[in-house]
Amino acid sequence: MEKYFFSKNYKETKSAGNKAKTDIEEILLTNGYKNVGIRSNYKGSLMGFIATLLSLLKACLSIQPNSVLVLQYPLKKYYTFLCRIAHLRNCEVITIIHDLGSFRRKRLTIEQEVSRLNQSDYIIAHNDAMKVWLQEHGVTSKLYSLGIFDYLSKSTPQPNTNKDQYRVLYAGALSPKKNPFLKQIGAIIKSYKFYLYGSGFEAQKNYNNIVNYKGFVPSDKLISTAEGDFGLVWDGDSISSCSGELGEYLKFNNPHKTSLYIRCHLPIIIWSKAALAPFIKENKIGFCIDSLDQIDNLLLELRKEDYDEIRKNVIKISDKLSDGYYTTTALNKILNQKENYK
């Protein structure tokens, strides 16, 4: 049985979404999957469109009967086409979900998205919460959970030598629309320092050096230079809860920044209702909180030996992320079950 995946043109490979996709492509290659598309990095719309069309043509000519094809979703209008081509060749499609257009960006209705996804034979959702959501909304494909996104990088995190107060790091897109809570957080910080990495943030004078804005740092460099003792996973417009559409999406989504923090060897502080909260608890790699104003007491009461133990657990998970463990495990589970049903 041949194993394939489809690559296309990526205008920007440093963004979180495309980094996750290109990492998975590297993991697939390592596991013996062949690229039936063409990966390219044209930034212009016309060249990018032509490159993707050439990828589609190559896929049509390359996919052999009775094979497996891995698609990364969303893939816009090409997704349905590739599913149909695969099924005409008696191939099965495995879909790895990165984002749900009907949930966050509202580019599709739920019915439209479910109709698309049901063309796949197997679906790897972010986590069990997303898996349940898909089932409840009519997805009939066989569903599996990824657990957490792998994160490939050759960079090595620096040893933790902090002997002063704890430092909490937050990385990502820092626009007021995405993270309004950042305007409020300076007022509640007392016992720790807060480090911001990303673009779009305007430092406010009343932070009194509690919030340290470091600007945009490429992920590989951040892994080797991150100033922090914890990575914060929080979205929305409030410090008391992850509210709003972005906050609501945390109940089903695996934010890629979580994997980045772990690769930086940073224990996680995450909203207790986030879909990744059970993963953080089970692996003992951080803390789950209801409100950001709980962080002060949490860190004041944290003993150094307990922090060191949590960080050891984080390093174990980081090693798995760097090896593509979670993607490989989910795919092998599907392939093994296919073999057992023959």
From TrEMBL:
Keyword presence, Transferase: yes
Protein name: Galactofuranosyltransferase
Coiled coil: none
Domain Glucosyltransferase 3-like N-terminal: 3-148
Gene3D superfamilies recorded: Glycogen Phosphorylase B (3.40.50.2000)
Domain Glucosyltransferase 3-like C-terminal stretches: 168-333
Keyword list, A-Z: Transferase
Entry superkingdom: Bacteria
InterPro entries: Gtf3_C, Gtf3_N
UniProt KW Transmembrane helix keyword: no
Signal peptide: none
